[in-house]
Amino acid sequence: MKLDKVPEVVIQRLPRYYRYLGELLEEKTNRISSMELSRRMGLTSSQIRQDFCSFGEFGLQGYGYNVKYLREEIGKILDLDRMKRMIVVGAGNLGQALANYQFDKVGFELIGIFDINPRLNGFAIRNIKVMMMDALESFVQENQVDIAVLTIPEEAALDVGMYLEKTGIQAIWNFTPVDLNTMLHICVKNVHLDENLMTLAYEYKNLLKKQA
Amino acid sequence: MKLDKVPEVVIQRLPRYYRYLGELLEEKTNRISSMELSRRMGLTSSQIRQDFCSFGEFGLQGYGYNVKYLREEIGKILDLDRMKRMIVVGAGNLGQALANYQFDKVGFELIGIFDINPRLNGFAIRNIKVMMMDALESFVQENQVDIAVLTIPEEAALDVGMYLEKTGIQAIWNFTPVDLNTMLHICVKNVHLDENLMTLAYEYKNLLKKQA
DNA sequence: TAGATTGTTAATCGATTAACAATC
DNA sequence: TAGATTGTTAATCGATTAACAATC
C-alpha cells in the first residue's frame, strides 16, 4: 500500500533507519528481518513494517529486507544522492563549527561562508574564504545556492532571513532562536538548541526526583 | 485536571511557550488569552488550554493568563531556576562553540572543558581552561557535575559515554551520531544534526517538486 | 513442502480539535 | 449584569500495536 504522502513522523525516523542500515552494511550483513532490526533500534517490528510499507514494498516474505537495497531506497526518498549547494551565513563559533562538519555524506556541499565582521574577511575554513555580507546577493546570482545555514545573533535573524528569501534561496537551516518557519514562505528547519537543553533539564529533574 | 504525568509532547512544547511568554513580557504585556497566544504561535487555542491544563490551572475565566506567572510556572516545571553544573567533553569546533554559548539563562553553568589533545591543554574559553581527559575523574569527585556535553568523534562516543556514566554524571547532552540513550541508564538527550539536515533535504526536495 | 516473515487489515492507544458549561 | 474566556468533556483524527492471511 504505497501512500501518496509519507507521514511526517515516518520521515523523521528515516535518517535513523538509514544510519542503522549503514552500520549493518559495514558489518557485511546483507539481509535483516523487521524483528531483528526492531531489537537493535528499540522499536516494534510492527512499526518498522508499517513505516516501510508507507512508501513501497521493499521486503520479501519469509526472507526479510535486503539491507543495501532498502538503504538506497531510503536515501532516494530523502534525496541524499543529489548534491545540494550550501552556504553558511554567520561565521561565529557555531558557524565555523558547522562549516567544518562533513555534510557531504548526506548530500550537502559547502560553497560559501558569509559574515559582517570585516576582521573575518578572507579568513578561510576548509579552503573557503569568508566573504562579506554585501557580496552575498551577487554570489547567489552567480552560483546556484540551495540552502543557507543561519548562525547569526538573534537580533539579526528575521532581517537576514527575509533577505535570504529575497535573494531566491529556498531553504534555511536555522540555528537562531527565532521561529523563521512561521515568518517565511520557503523551507525552514529550526534547530533550537536552547529548547532542547531545557527539555533535558526537565528529564534530569525527574531522574533526581525518582532517586530521592 | 492536574495530571500526574505531563505528556511528553507537552514537555517538548514548553520551552517554546516559555520563549513566547518572555517576548510578551518584554513588550510589557501582562495578560494574554489562549486565542491571542494561539495566533502568535501558530497553534490552536484548544491545544494551548489543553497543554496548560495538563499541569495545573493557571488562567482565569473571562480574563486569560497572567504572562509573568504562567512563564514562571513553566520555568519551574522545566527546572530552569536551579543552577546545573555542566562540563564540555571534546573541545573541537563544536565543543568550543557550545562552550561559548550562553546557557546560563536556562540554568546551566559551564565549569569545565575536557579533551585528549595535549595541544589544547590550558587553552581557555570564557576563563575556563581546557583540561586533559585523565583529570576528569578527580574533577568530578571534587566538583558536583550535573551534565556533560558530549562533542567528541563518533568512534569514541560509546567508550566515553560509559566512562562518564561510571564517574557518576547523570545526564549527557549528546552531539555524537551514536544513540547513547539506548545504551546508557542515565539521562541522555541526543542532538543528531545530520539527521535533522536529512529531513530538511526531504522537505526541500518536495518544495522543488511542487514548483516543477 | 514447511517455516519464516512480509504486507496489510483491524484494534488500540494517544493526541488534537470542537464544544460548552462554569465562572470571572 | 453581560461578555469573555477558561477548564474540561466529548468527538475526531492519526499513530502505534496486534494479528494473520499471503507468499516467498
Automatic annotation (TrEMBL), chains A, B:
Homodimer. The lineage of its organism: Bacteria, Bacillati, Bacillota, Clostridia, Lachnospirales. Residues 16-55 bind DNA. GO terms for biological process: negative regulation of DNA-templated transcription; response to redox state. GO terms for molecular function: DNA binding; DNA-binding transcription factor activity. Residues 79-179 form the CoA-binding domain. The keyword Cytoplasm applies. It comes from Frisingicoccus caecimuris. Modulates transcription in response to changes in cellular NADH/NAD(+) redox state. It is found in: Cytoplasm. The keyword Cytoplasm applies. Keywords: Cytoplasm, DNA-binding, NAD, Repressor, Transcription, Transcription regulation. NAD(+) binds at G90, A91, G92, N93, L94, G95. NCBIfam families: PRK05472.1-3, PRK05472.1-4, PRK05472.2-3, PRK05472.2-4, PRK05472.2-5. Belongs to the transcriptional regulatory Rex family. Pfam families: CoA_binding, Put_DNA-bind_N. The gene is rex. One of its GO terms (cellular component) is cytoplasm. This is Redox-sensing transcriptional repressor Rex. SUPFAM superfamilies: NAD(P)-binding Rossmann-fold domains (SSF51735), Winged helix' DNA-binding domain (SSF46785).
